[in-house]
């Protein structure tokens, strides 16, 4: 009878940014699934400790890594309920923050020590600034809305296609000029296809809106 020695997998996670701050994953989880599709381990990483180790029997495993500046902004599956299609949504009363994900597989042998590097991809976009010039003097309010945007994502990194939302923001006038601006730095899931962008102007006589379809997806 042969003696089977558990293998050890050392998992190192980092972001795919160009700077050290973008590479750091402040709050991370790694879901480990076996060939039967069962989640056999759930590991936690931090910005200061982005390496975790798990002892596993020989076999092929799939790692679903997820990271953020603060994962408490999201509703994540537990180890017991996790599956590749588990849906991740924004937590109630929480703003969206950065979200990174990556899926990778590895095959290990008995007694083997494996180091697996996982580079996570950003799964959200950021609307940093909006600016509209040449706004007439009689306009008292300017709003911009963008839709449809995905509102949830699966553990395997694919977006949930049957649930979308819109994003609306009010701009503010830049002093007494004809320029209205906003700098929300708002994280959002990408658009589902090419989004519709609507700009609404409010005057004393009512609201007039202009709508158009963007030339490309917001990724």
Please give a structural write-up:
- The chain has 219 residues and is mainly β.
- Helix content is 2%, strand content 56%.
- The protein is built from 1 helix and 18 strands.
- It has one helix spanning 20-23, and strands at 7-15, 27-33, 39-46, 51-56, 59-68, 74-75, 87-90, 99-108, 113-122, 125-127, 130-132, 141-150, 152-154, 164-173, 180-182, 186-188, 191-203, 206-213.
- The strands form 4 sheets. A 7-stranded mixed beta sheet has the order 3-2-5-8-9-1-4, with no helix packed on it.
- Strand 2 (27-33) and strand 3 form a beta hairpin.
- The N and C termini lie far apart (55 Å).
- The model has no long low-confidence stretch (mean pLDDT 93).
């Amino acid at each position: 009878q042969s003696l089977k020695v558990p293998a050890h997998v050392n998992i190192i996670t980092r972001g795919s940014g160009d700077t050290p701050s973008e590479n750091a994953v402040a709050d991370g989880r790694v879901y480990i699934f076996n060939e039967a599709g069962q989640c056999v381990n759930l590991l936690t990483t931090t910005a200061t400790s982005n390496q975790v180790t798990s002892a596993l029997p020989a076999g092929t495993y799939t790692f679903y890594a997820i990271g953020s500046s603060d994962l408490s902004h999201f509703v994540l599956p537990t180890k017991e309920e996790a599956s590749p299609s588990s849906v991740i949504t924004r937590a109630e009363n929480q703003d969206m923050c950065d979200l990174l994900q990556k899926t990778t597989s590895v095959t290990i042998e008995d007694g083997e020590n494996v180091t697996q590097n996982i580079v996570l991809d950003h799964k959200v976009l950021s609307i940093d600034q909006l600016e509209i010039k040449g706004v007439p003097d009689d306009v008292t309010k300017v709003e911009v809305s963008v839709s449809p945007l995905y509102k949830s994502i699966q553990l395997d990194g694919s977006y949930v296609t049957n649930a979308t939302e819109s994003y609306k923001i009010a701009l503010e006038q830049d002093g007494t000029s004809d320029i209205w601006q906003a700098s929300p730095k708002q994280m959002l899931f990408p658009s589902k296809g090419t989004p519709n962008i609507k700009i609404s102007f409010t005057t004393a006589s009512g609201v007039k809106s202009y709508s158009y379809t963007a030339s490309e997806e917001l990724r």
